[in-house]
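Pilot study result, target chain (324 residues):
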Amino acid sequence: MEKEQETKVSQDPSSSGYRQWHLPFQTVLRLSLEPDAGHYMITPERELTRKPLRIDFLILRLEEGYRMRSSLGKLLKKHTIVEYKGATDYLSVEDLFKGQAYASLYVSSGTGDSSPERQKDSASSEVSLSKPARPGLAVSPEELLLMFVCYPYPRKVIQFLQRTSVRIEENAPGIYRFRLWCIDIVIIVQSCLDSAEYLWIKNLSSNVPPEDFDLMAAQQQTHPEDKALDDLIQFIYDNNPYLQKEGENVCKVFDDIRQKAFDQGKDAGLKQGKEEGFGLGRDEGENQLSRLIQILLRDGQINDISAVTKDKKIRHIFYEKYGL
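Predicted structure:
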């Protein structure tokens, strides 16, 4: 594959480096479609064949007559295949052809049937294997959109399309729409997006402006029970080290996240003291776990807090590590 950036990126889908951006991107999709909650369904790692061949995300519009309100939602068709390139990756011409092949498989394989019965069938390999393939196309190509999301501008892809006389329309900054054969395709270039329209998608990156982080922080405060959003804010923060020096709003966000984590830890410690009975009694169990959580917060190991509060073995490993 051609190389557009200095950074070397693993292309092994099973590697943590390749996949680390995908879970936060799922949260970004949900937040970008928040005005349309209840009117769509996102399926990550959707299998296209009975053997392992998966698209990154499938977004199904659930109601025929509903008009999507979010900027992202207005781009969607009944079936939208989303191929996402992490912020350290890039979109290549090869990716374009692979995505089109995925779209063609989706149209022809019967995996596009969004009925509840079909969804239940697809969850069981035994049922899926026992049912014969449906005749004809499961999805009309006119109901399908192939969407690529990438951070850097895909110059080589655009040049390739221009050389092959493909008409490209830039509907809005960073939104490029065109048609190959019978498939409508949209390329979303995160670095070129308008923050007012695509705040979350634009800023799943390592180049987040402080003013955009302030806006995200404000939205985070309106979703106090959303653990995935907390994790997303933490992920963005971890990948933008300079934000640690950018004012009180950033500090407040993480004070709130840490307080929630600490409160969860106290509750878990109370439960631990009751159920595990180390011989130290309820208070000792609570204090031991609370001390561990304070250490993890101090060291910035936010993601480990959930693990130690849920998994007894992991908790004891950390107890030994810190001499608690």
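One observation from the pilot: Strands lie at 40-47, 54-61, 79-84, 144-150, 169-172, 175-180, 183-189. A full batch analysis is planned for the follow-on phase.
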